[in-house]
């Protein structure tokens, strides 16, 4: 409706009207390989490369058991309040930080999964790693609970009668109440299978008590077995008093 449109050249006006009449494409146009190369890498890809190949610029070492990984204070402090408070208060001895989550020490694969999440937000990990990292967002003070939500979903999705006892023990050790209750309910519903596993013999007594209580709450033994006496005493038909 502008005056400029009225004064536009005829060829351009026809092109605009034709494009206006064309339906919108259902899919965005494909990006040419040359254009994609010119676009470069994403921030996630850059930080992934920095984690694996930035050792020469590292200024701190993270250690789990006998495994050490070079890291960068600025990234750790930006992602976790735990590291920010540490680096603001003091410098770790020998520039080495021993990693633990609550009272447990993560495995080497779980340690690497933790670093991948800190550096570039990677959440794809095995179920075993989720056991260790479930409490990491709370312990390290991450800026959001995305990792905890994924770990909980990963555990609940992949728990099975074969690994439920291991998940129960890990959840109890890390005080993960939601996961522990979920594992106990699965044990109650799959008790005939779980009870035959050798691992149940190594459970601590408090966990065995929790299993028994869950079985009772789930109604596994609510209906008592009707027992009949072996021999019934027939009522006396005699009028004589029984002495």
From TrEMBL:
Any one annotated GO CC term: Golgi apparatus
UniProt xrefs under Pfam families: BTB
Gene3D superfamilies named in the record: Potassium Channel Kv1.1, Chain A
InterPro entries for the chain: BTB/POZ_dom, LZTR1/Attractin, SKP1/BTB/POZ_sf
Domain BTB: 58-127
Record key words, sorted: Kelch repeat, Repeat
PANTHER family noted in UniProt: LEUCINE-ZIPPER-LIKE TRANSCRIPTIONAL REGULATOR 1
Protein name, as recorded: Leucine-zipper-like transcriptional regulator 1
Organism: Papilio xuthus
């Amino acid at each position: 409706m502008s005056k400029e449109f009225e004064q536009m050249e005829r060829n351009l006006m026809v092109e605009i009207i034709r494009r206006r009449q064309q339906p919108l494409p259902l899919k965005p146009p494909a990006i040419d390989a040359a254009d994609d190369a010119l676009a470069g890498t994403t921030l996630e890809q850059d930080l992934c490369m920095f984690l694996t190949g930035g050792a020469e610029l590292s200024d701190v070492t993270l250690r789990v058991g006998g495994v050490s990984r070079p890291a960068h204070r600025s990234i750790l402090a930006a992602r976790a309040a735990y590291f920010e408070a540490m680096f603001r208060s003091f410098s770790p001895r020998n520039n080495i930080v021993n990693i633990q989550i609550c009272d447990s020490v993560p495995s080497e694969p779980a340690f690497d999964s933790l670093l991948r999440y800190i550096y570039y937000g990677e959440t794809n990990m095995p179920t075993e790693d989720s056991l260790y990292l479930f409490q990491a967002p709370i312990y390290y003070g991450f800026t959001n609970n995305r990792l905890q939500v994924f770990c909980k979903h990963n555990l609940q999705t992949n728990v099975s009668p074969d690994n439920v006892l291991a998940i129960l023990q890990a959840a109890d050790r890390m005080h993960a109440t939601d996961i522990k209750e979920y594992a106990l309910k699965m044990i109650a519903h799959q008790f005939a299978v779980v009870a035959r596993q050798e691992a149940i013999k190594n459970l601590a007594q408090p966990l065995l008590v929790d299993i028994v209580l869950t079985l009772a709450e789930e109604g596994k033994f609510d209906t008592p077995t009707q027992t009949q006496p072996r021999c019934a005493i027939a009522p006396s038909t005699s009028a004589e008093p029984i002495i």
